[in-house]
Amino acid sequence: MRIDRLDHLVLTVADLAATVDFYTRVLGMELVTFGDGRRALAFGPHKINLHLAGREFEPKAERPEPGSADLCLVVADPLLDVVEHLEACGVPIEQGPVSRTGALGPIVSIYVRDPDRNLIELCNYVA
């Protein structure tokens, strides 16, 4: 077997409204609704499905818990512009800019936390 790509991932969240606000207002994702009113956050050809803690869709992770995710997202904008945007949104930067290694090579990253305290890495690939 050979995996081609990631289709979606799931975040278990404590507060759907706070999560949707952060990912749409701060990170520029689009809220989508599907199925029987399920919610997801779309960006490019990807999406993050949202499960409300205690009311997860089955089947689910063995131990779904808000704040247990660590995601790295590649941003199209220069990282310094992202820093300015985050500051304007009142989102503190936990670390960075720092050099890291992404799936395709060297990246420069900054780290923030979402409302559930998930670690969100925002990066640019080094040209």
UniProtKB/TrEMBL annotation:
Any Pfam family the entry gives: Glyoxalase
Gene Ontology molecular-function annotations: dioxygenase activity; lyase activity
SUPFAM superfamilies: Glyoxalase/Bleomycin resistance protein/Dihydroxybiphenyl dioxygenase (SSF54593)
UniProt KW keywords: Dioxygenase, Lyase, Oxidoreductase
Domain (VOC) ranges: 5-125
Gene3D superfamilies named among the record's database cross-references: 2,3-Dihydroxybiphenyl 1,2-Dioxygenase, domain 1 (3.10.180.10)
InterPro entries per record: Glyas_Bleomycin-R_OHBP_Dase, Glyas_Fos-R_dOase_dom, GlyoxalaseI/FosfomycinResist, VOC_core
Keyword set includes Secreted: no
Protein name (Swiss-Prot/TrEMBL): Catechol 2,3-dioxygenase-like lactoylglutathione lyase family enzyme
Lineage, broadest ranks: Bacteria, Bacillati, Actinomycetota, Actinomycetes, Pseudonocardiales
